[in-house]
Amino acid sequence: MKRQLPFLLVFIFGAFMTIQYYVPHESSEFVYTFLLDWTMIIGIFALALGIWSLYHVSVDKIQHKKENWIYSYVTLFGLFIMVVFGFSYKVGDSWGMYPLFVIALMALLYCLIHASISRSKGFWLGLSGAALAVSFGVAFFDDSWKLAFMTSEGLKNTMFTNFADFVLTPILATMFALLAFFIASAAYRAFRARNVLASLLLIAAIIVMLRFNPYMPFGLPELVAETSSWLMNVPNLAAQRAIVIGIGLGIVATSLKVILGIERGYMGKG
Amino acid sequence: MTEHKNIFDRMMSLDRRWIFLFLIVVCVATYTADFTIPINTEAEVESIFNFLDSLPEGDIVLVAIDYDPNNLAELHPMTYAVVEHLWRKKVKIIFTSLSQLGPAMADQAIRDISDSLKVDKTYNYNGVEHNFKGREIVNGVDYTFLGFKPYYALIILGMGQDFRLNFPSDYYGTPLDDLPMMQGVINYDQVACVVDLSGGNITDAWISYGQGRFNFPLMLGLTGVMVSQYYPFLGSGQVSGIMGGLLGAAQYEELADNPGRAKDGMRVQLFAHYVIILFIVLGNIGFFMSRRKRMEGGN
């Protein structure tokens, strides 16, 4: 029963969702909407599980001083601080004792991490309690900011937006920008006319790269642009269409295998 | 004993740090130099521009900001070009962000573009001069920002029934029914088209679950590396137009006579491509000459 029930549920809901797509009746739409809500609820549980897993893995790294363990602190503090910023917002003209609140919560996180890994649990739990008391005290007595768990005021918190705009965004953009250098280096090494196929790839790559190069003589810009357009619209389109159809058929086959219980990998065992 | 390397061997196995150095010098030099490059436009971008330009005042377009800061350099200029063009024409916009860090991108773009539209400007395109009177862009009147929800495929399907299903209130917490522009706007039926600016496979969901099921005109703005994958959908008519990478954004800016960060970036991209081609040519000269020498040595 432990194994049969999940297979039965997968079959019922899989078959229903497949058939539902072709039934535009309102009762069918109602069940479909109801199931979509369920998917999100399950997803939120998965998110909570993910955060717990991240915490657990990071603490384990810190405990055993694994490679680059120090960055686990950065991960946890970064995660925690953004959550705090996202749930709080300024009411008055100044932030008042908000920095103390944030520091107290960071101290709480630090103490909780050490309570998990240290032998002197009592000491760290005591400090955690003190940090929690300070943060509660500040939150209770300071009127210049408020906590908002059920509304989206925290999204306007300048701490939240500044960390997103001026820390996260540049970091991610920089990481991606570095790719240009690796692509340049990889292109230099990979694009060698070793045989006919490699030569074709090389010529196609150069034409596409030069497709809007305005600094070429003898009407070459138009010729290169037209050739590039042909490359994208004819050989590329044909190959991509074949890939898309192949992927589509693969998805149908895999879905059918899951619905019919032939593919059971999602149960954790094959 | 170290092996003697001739000039051709060296051309073949150049230390990659030289490539990095050369590339950064060229990028910085072209970025700081003040010049413009002519941009030719493609049919794929022209079809997007012409469609959006033909929309009457008051129509609604759904702009999906489905990218993270990783794709900022390529996709943010597209957002600026498209949104500014639409707001100039007083077309209303529903924004969504189905990528996790998308809301920050959308929020930033909305703030910047709103500021830039406060001043009068004159644009000249399609052979006609368009005078734009600076105005305030108002949340709930000119745009509605729905924000982020996880499980993009489900959200795309849900919005086909009712926007309120997944987004009872907007990103800022205002119920959709309280926003003037959302009065009578139920689902995609009230939207003229969807413009998806995406750096990942959310685009597949927009094609399969959105356009495939609800049959709205879909236009894509994609990163350079993604473009080739979506040509089949352009050929089949499922997608009405594609802007590819910074070049696509620059083409849109050119068409809308609104030069911005894409045209600026194209200078850098063009010369970076020159550098890459130069090194590819050097590598191949080295490769052929080394092979010839080896063959001559063998004989």
CATH architecture title of the largest domain in chain B: 3-Layer(aba) Sandwich
Radius of gyration of chain A: 28 Å
- By secondary-structure content and strand pairing, the structural class of chain B works out as alpha/beta
Q: What's the SSE pattern of chain A?
A: HHHEHHEHHHH
Largest sheet of chain A: 2 strands, antiparallel
What features would you describe in this structure?
The complex is a heterodimer of chains A (270) and B (299). Chain A is mostly helical and 270 residues long. Among the domains of chain A are: 66 residues; 108 residues, no CATH class. Chain A contains 9 helices and 2 strands, in the order αααβααβαααα. Chain A has a two-stranded antiparallel sheet with strand order 1-2. The longest helix of chain A is centred in the N-terminal third of the chain and has 38 residues. Chain A is extended. Chain A starts with a helix and ends in an 11-residue tail after the last helix. In chain A, 13% of the residues are buried. The model of chain A has no long low-confidence stretch (mean pLDDT 88). By secondary structure, chain B is of the alpha/beta class. Chain B has 2 domains: 54 residues; 216 residues, Rossmann fold, CATH 3.40.50. Chain B contains 11 helices and 8 strands. Chain B has a 6-stranded parallel beta sheet with strand order 5-2-1-6-7-8, with helices on both faces. In chain B, strands 3-4 form a two-stranded antiparallel ribbon. In chain B, helix 2 runs antiparallel to helix 11, helix 4 packs across helix 5 and helix 6 runs parallel beside helix 8. The two termini of chain B are 26 Å apart. The interface between A and B is large, with 56 and 58 residues.
